[in-house]
């Protein structure tokens, strides 16, 4: 969850990767004013979560030989 009010912002995440994504989103909502202050346009509440519990997997069989049973185990 990302909550931005007029004078503060709160990021709540269940793990460090969620917090990192929240910080990235937070940074994209900020801008620098003419007086060199950080600001945002409005109060914002964002609730987000990954669609799947994993990002993906790469089995690099070109550089590392993997037996077929190991590949099937990961699929």
TrEMBL record:
GO molecular function: beta-N-acetylhexosaminidase activity
Key word Hydrolase present: yes
GO biological process: carbohydrate metabolic process; ganglioside catabolic process; glycosaminoglycan metabolic process
GO CC annotation: lysosome; membrane
Keywords (A to Z) from UniProt: Hydrolase
Protein known as: Uncharacterized protein
